[in-house]
Amino acid sequence: MLTLLLRFVAAWPLLLLHTLGVLAGWLAWLLDSGFRQRMRDNLRQAYPADYNRLLTRSIAQNGRGALELLAAWARPAHAVSKLVRDCQGWQHAEAALAAQRPIIFVTPHLGSFDIAGRYVSSLLPYPLTAMYRPPKLKWLEPLMQAGRARDNGRTAPATGAGVRILMKALKSGEATVILPDQAPGAGEGIWAPFFGKPAYTMTLLPRLAEATDAVVLFFFAERLSWGRGFKVHIQPMQGAFSGDKLADATVLNQNIESLIKMAPTQYLWSYNRYKHPAGAPLPDEVQA
Q1: pLDDT score, position 287
Q2: What contacts 24+ positions apart, CB below 8 Å, involve 155-159?
């Protein structure tokens, strides 16, 4: 019954979903002190001068992002792709396809990452494999999996087995999607600056790129106003991975920051980006 209800709500017009999302965002702000504190701290860390101007819009955008996930997961794949009104930068993917090189699509928690992935998947001539972590709300996982693992979409869990799935896909000349700003587990990351503060950053992405000679493309779906849909931005990585873990993690975070600056209120500032994973070493500044 719950799944049927969620699918019913997912079919509502995007403007209505976004309106409800604004209410959900403010409700979370009022009722969840952890949500409120993380958003304040993270946004103030990244944009101290513009904090007051960006805060209220970011609360609303967080809520919009949560409600539109239902549309991304429960609507037919072709209907999800049609929500994208414009795409800038697809020529970079076309160049990689022409060169027969695998592609690592990288999208942070910015805009609508699920709709961006669905759209990109619809344009590729082969499967797109996305690494994922199960949602905290376990009852959402079947809906999420059904929405992502269809047509050209494949999923791989954020485990050793999932990494092998990604590696196999890339070595077969296919494409993968990775969210680079999820805090990895102990031993799977390194502390690197993110908006001027150490954040435990994954080392997996540079390793995959080096092992498979993949083209790394950063992208996200910008949420347009008044429920008009989305605009996908795709751009090649700025800089290069060198094999040095700290240098590579720094390059990765710099590219993430570059995307966020394009739509700062649409980043998931409520995510605990600076958390200390259990068993991971402390950053140098804490150890000092």
Answers
A1: 47
A2: 155/129, 155/130, 155/131, 156/129, 156/130, 156/131, 156/132, 157/131, 157/132, 157/133, 158/131, 158/132, 158/133, 158/182
* The pTM of the whole model exceeds 0.85: yes
What is the pLDDT at residue 49?
Answer: 96
Cα distances (Å, whole numbers) of residue 180 to 77, 78, 200, 248, 252: 24, 26, 11, 12, 8
The residue written with tokens 């969840």 in the block is 32
All residue ranges of the chain with pLDDT < 50 are: 286-288
Taking the domains of the chain in order of start, what are their residue ranges? 2-274
